[in-house]
Every structure is written in structure tokens, then in C-alpha cells.
Amino acid sequence: MEFNALLVQLLNGLAQASTLFLMAAGLSLIFGVTRIVNFAHGSFYMLGLYASVSLFEHLSHRWAGSGASGSAWFFWQSVVWSGVLTAALGALVEVLVIKRLSKASDIVQLLGTFALVLIIKDASLWFWGAEDLMGPRAPGLKGAVYILGRAFPSYDLLLIAVGPLGMGALWWILTKTRFGVLVRAASLDRDMVAALGVNQRWLFTGVFALGCALAGWAGALQMPREPANLSLDLTSVSEAFVVVVVGGLGSIPGAYLAALLIAETKALCMALGTVDRFGLTLEFSKLTLVAEFLVMAAVLVFKPWGLMGRPIAAKARAEEVVHENPSFERVWMAYGLALAFMVLWALPLLTHKAPYATVLAIDVLTSVLFASSLRFLMGPAGLHSFGHAAYFGLGAYGAALITLKLHWGMGWALLLAPMLSALVAAVVGWFCVQLSGIYLAMLTLAFAQIVWSIGFQWDDITGGSNGLSGIWPSPQWASKEDFYRLTLGLVGLSLFVLYRLAHSPFGYALRASRDSSLRAQALGIDVKRLQWTGFVVAAVFAGLAGALFAFSKGSISPEVLGISKSVDALVMVLLGGLEASHGPALGALIYTTLADHLQRATPYWQAALGVLILFLVLLRPEGLAGFLGGCGRRHTAAERAISRP
Predict the structure, then answer these.
(1) Bridge partners, 274 (sequence order)
(2) Which residue of 38, 108, 405, 642 pairs with 104 in a disulfide if CB–CB is 3.0 to 4.6 A?
(3) How confident is the model at residue 627 (pLDDT cuts 50, 70, 90)?
(4) How distant, in Å, are the alpha carbons of 201, 207, 267, 558 from that of 565?
């Protein structure tokens, strides 16, 4: 590798680090003051890029013929105003939505801000269309400079300077202005700031608007480098989360250091390219897909709070509802489940004129098992995971490979595929259970993305981006009706086992470890080993759901390992209610059927789904199961009060 090629790649890394820093700095500011985990931050980055392209086109058409100086003026006006517009939109979102989520748990905040992602994405689709928008090249910076004989874009030199300049501007704001002093004070002790008479609502709104402006400017500065497209929201927010977590939540210097580390790691991988050593061929360029997640995993394993972070106090956990007559309710639940199982068993007969109903029912059942496995991890175990799709996808790929490569039957695939998920979870879980809170969740995401990159790039085994096809059930289960009943039986048995585990001494020990780790340890419970076991158990049932999914579809792709699949499971769990055993089943039923119907009814189905989720989060954060259970208990209490003499 030539030195000048390495130098140019490292300079490219510095330019990319500036964008990462602006994104992460906004996210870090918002979390540091408001303690809101803003999953919609990437949407403001996307809006900043879309807005800057549209503003430049509008100004250029209105003032056509103004020359090169006019074009440069329009370009920088577009950049500035896009940040202002995203700040205004961020302030509006904070007033209408975010402030109502401030008292909720981190996971409910994520669900609420994810709903905003869906709404903003479809609003962008309606306004700008599905096609990518190409931005202009920066006037006056269209050329290149030569560094040791290698061409380097002039605009990227400007981006290299943006990072330090942005860091300096934020330092001046936070240390030399009254607003900055209040921001730093609120990040350390919000109660004391309120006691001093500071209007926290306006402070939080201002911080949120500033964070959104930084995201918008980060997107606008990418105008000459990448087109505006609808996939930028999730890809950019995942990178921003990684930078913030690696640097340390709430630390601006940490965010800059992490952005440099991640960007230069990617640049180094590109510079190394393909390396042949000792008969082995190492393609470092492929690591750029997961370089940030590899860095995050390495940092969190050795520095659990990030490079410059500090431990974050956990929010108080809401107490679980204690039923007045649990034995009475369990009896009626058993009757209800038995009746539901009989109706579901007869579903193909009831819908023989609508065969698609059976196909949809299989999708619902696999989703129920997938969501229930995640609920076991999040509920009794208290471990929040953003990467649970890894074990679902491993089960799907395991079943496909056992069937297609080893030519074993479906029975062996359904038995061994969950074991593959358990094996990987045993390794990953050992590292993950050493952390807690958002750091734990992000480490699970890091490992999941590593698994996704293997599935996406290992063409010889996994089929790469094309995936695998021809995964069909055994002949005796070939018809949809028979496969539906097999799925119903396996899912029903799995849910029964999960329920019994959750209400066994093992499950109660998990709850004790979740609610008070120190007390559990004082009682002689090995908390980490117990949580590790719960992690593996959840992976087993997620793997079974993935295997059933593979046989129901006949083909799989790397999407079953992706972030969006993990988010789907989170939405199902929280939609139904985390505290209720039947919550995931209710959430999966509503989410899967509603998404299916909305996709066929309107191209803006994600926005409709987002509005529904948002209303539920704002009005009923306990989920549908908790709401219905509360109504039932209130009704029972009222009847008892009336019947008393």
C-alpha cells in the first residue's frame, strides 16, 4: 500500500468524521439534557439533505442567470436555511410529542420516536417522491487538489475544517453563554435547575431544536457527496447512536473522538483493500459495512460507559400490577386460551374461501413467537435488546442451510436451527450481560450488525444479498393448512414453555435480578449467569420462529437479520404491553395484520401505522394488554362494590 494512497484515505476519513460529529453532537446534546433517546434524529438529517437540495433548486430557478457568485450564495443559503427549518420542525415536535414522553422509560421513548420516523418518512415520500434527489456540486469547490500526486476533492478539505469549527462553536456556546451554562447545569442536575426558577420546558425545547439543527446541517453539507433518499433516516441514526455510545452519552468531546476513531477505521479498511497473507485472503474493504459496530463492541467490552462517558442512573421501574384474585384470573385465562386454540385450529376450515387468511395467520404466529421471545428477555430478565433479529435470522438461515446444503429433513432443521441461535447467543450474551441500559441495547445491536454483514457478504454460504430460496416444508406438511397447524402447535407449545419459565423459580429469580441486582446477589443469586441463561433461552425461541418463517416463505434474505426486523419485534412487544404475558401475542396480531392491510391499501401505510403507535404511546404507554386488563379489573372492582351489602 502506497503512502500517498493511505494519506488520501485518512483525509477522507477526517471529512466523514465531521458529518458524524455534527450528527452525534446533536443527539448527545438532546440526551444529555432531556434524557430522551431520540430514534428520529436520523430523520432530521434526511430532511436537512432534502430541504437543502430543494432550496437550491428553487433559488437557482428564481434567480436564473445570476452567475457563479450567485450560485455559491444560493448553495450556502440552502445549507443555512435547511438547518433553521429542521430546528423549527424539531421545536414543534418537542412541544407536541417529546415533552409528553419525558417521564416514560427509555424503551417507550424509542417506540414513540420510532413512530415519528415512520411519519416523517412517508411525509417525505409524499412531498419529494420515491426517486433519489441529486444535489449540486459546491460552487467554487468543484475541483480537486493534489496531495503527493493523488487527487483529493476540494470540498472535502472544507468538510475536514467543519468538525473542529463545529466543536469550537459548541464549546463557546456551552461555556460562554447563559444558555450554555443552563444546558450544562441541566445535564448534571435538572432538579436543581428547576429549583432555581429556570423554565425547563423552554430550555428543553431549545436544546432539542439545536440538536435537530445540527442534524439538518450535517445532512445539508452532504449535498455534493450523496443523493437525498428515503433510507437515510435509519442508516444515519444508527451511525449517530454508535458514535454517541462509543464516545459516552452526553459527552461532546467524546462524540468527536469517537467520530474520528470510527471514520478513520473505515478509511483504513478501504486503504488496506484485499490483503493476502499466509495463504489467506482478507478483504478489509468489506468491513466498512460494520466497522463502526466492531469499534463499538470493542470499546464497550473494555470501557462500558464509552470513551468519555459516565454511568447513567437507571429510571425508576414501574411496579407490576398485582391482581386481586390471581387464581380466579388464571382459570378464566386457561379457558380463554383453550377456546382460542380450538378456533385457531379450525381457522383453515372457516376461511377455505379465503386462502390468504391462512398465509397471514402463519405470519402472525411466527411474529407472536418472535415477539414473545423478546418479551421474555425484556420483561422477566429486564434486558433490552436492539439486535434480537440476529437470532431470528440465524434460525432462518440455519433451517435453510440444513435443508439445502445438508439435505436433511424439516424436522432436523426445526430442531437444530434454534441450537445455532443458542450457540451464537451464548457467546454474545456473555459480553452483553456485563452492561445495562442503553449501553447493553447498543452492544446487542453491534453484534447483530456483525451477524448481518456476514449474511450479506458470504456469497458462497448464505447467498449474499440475494439470499437463499427453495426452502420448502416436508411433503407431509406441504399444504398451507397442514403447515399452519404444525406452526400453531409449535408456537402454542413454545408459548406455554415460556410462560412456565417466566413463572418458575428461574423466572422469579430473573425478576429479582432485574428489580434489585444488589439484593439478589446478597441472596446468593449469580445475577450475570442467570441473565446469560435468559439471553440464551430467548434466542432459542427466536431461532425457532425464524426457522418456521423460512419454511413458510420458501426463501430468505439478509433482511431477516437487519435492524428493521429487530425494531418490528420491539414495536410488537410494546404495542401489546411489556408487563403482560399475553401482550406480545396481542401486539403481534395487531401490528402484523394492520401492516399487511395498510400496505395493500395505501403507499403511505407507514405513516398511518406511525400515527397509531404514537397515539398509543402517548395515551396508553402500558400497551393494549395493560389497558384492557386495567379496564377488566376496574369493571370487576365496580361489580364487587355494587354487590356488597
Answers:
(1) 283
(2) 108
(3) low
(4) 35, 31, 29, 10
Q: What is the DSSP string of 414-472?
A: HHHHHHHHHHHHHHHHHHHTT--HHHHHHHHHHHHHHHHHHHHH-HHHH-GGG-EE---
Burial of 423 (0-12, 13-18, 19+ CB in 10 A): middle
State the Cα–Cα distance between residues 629 and 633, nearest whole angstrom. Answer: 6
- Written as nine digits, the cell of 284 is 478489509
pLDDT of residue 643 exceeding 50, the answer is no
SS3 content of the chain, % helix, strand, coil (to 5): 75, 5, 20
Domain-wise residue ranges, the chain: 3-302, 326-634
**For residue 590, what are the CA distances in angstroms to 258, 573, 613?**
40, 11, 11
Encode pLDDT of 459-511 as tens digits: 888 998 889 999 989 888 888 888 999 999 999 999 999 989 998 999 999 99
Q: Which residue has the cell 448534571?
A: 188
Q: How confident is the model at residue 289 (pLDDT cuts 50, 70, 90)?
A: confident
Quick one: how far is CA 428 from the chain centroid? Answer: 18
Tell me the residue type at 453: S
**Structural contact between residues 102 and 617, judged by C-beta atoms closer than 8 angstroms:** no
Name the pLDDT band for 515 (thresholds 50, 70, 90). confident
H or E element: which one contains 282? strand 280-283
Spatial separation of the C-alpha atoms in residues 10 and 257, rounded to whole Å: 15
Lowest mean pLDDT among 71-80, 87-96, 526-535: 71-80
**Do residues 413 and 397 lie in contact, with contact meaning Cβ atoms separated by under 8 Å?**
no
Task: Please answer whether residues 107 and 379 qualify as being in contact, where contact means their C-beta atoms are separated by less than 8 angstroms.
Answer: no
d(CA 472, CA 552): 7
C-alpha distances (whole Å) from 577 to each of 448, 474, 625 are 24, 36, 5
The predicted structure's pLDDT at residue 194:
74
pLDDT category of residue 638 using cuts at 50, 70 and 90: very low
Radius of gyration for the chain, computed over Cα atoms and rounded to the nearest angstrom: 26
Q: Is the predicted pLDDT of residue 67 greater than 60, yes or no?
A: no
Chain centroid to CA 39 = 7
- Does pLDDT of 100 surpass 90? no
- Burial profile 152-178: b = 16 or more Cβ within 10 angstroms, e = fewer: bbebbbbbbebbeebbeebeeebeeee
Q: Which three cell numbers stand for residue 120?
A: 416523517
Pairing type for strands 274-277 and 150-153 reads unpaired
Assign a CATH topology to domain 326-634. Answer: ABC transporter involved in vitamin B12 uptake, BtuC (1.10.3470)
Structure confidence by residue, pLDDT tens digits, 134-188: 888 888 787 788 887 788 888 889 999 998 999 999 989 988 888 888 888 877 7
Range 132-141 burial, b when 16+ CB lie within 10 A, else e: ebebbbbbeb
Confidence (pTM): 0.84
Residue 57 contacts residue 273 (beta carbons within 8 Å): no
- Contact of 382 with 550, CB cutoff 8 Å: no
> Tell me, what DSSP letter sits at residue 228?
B
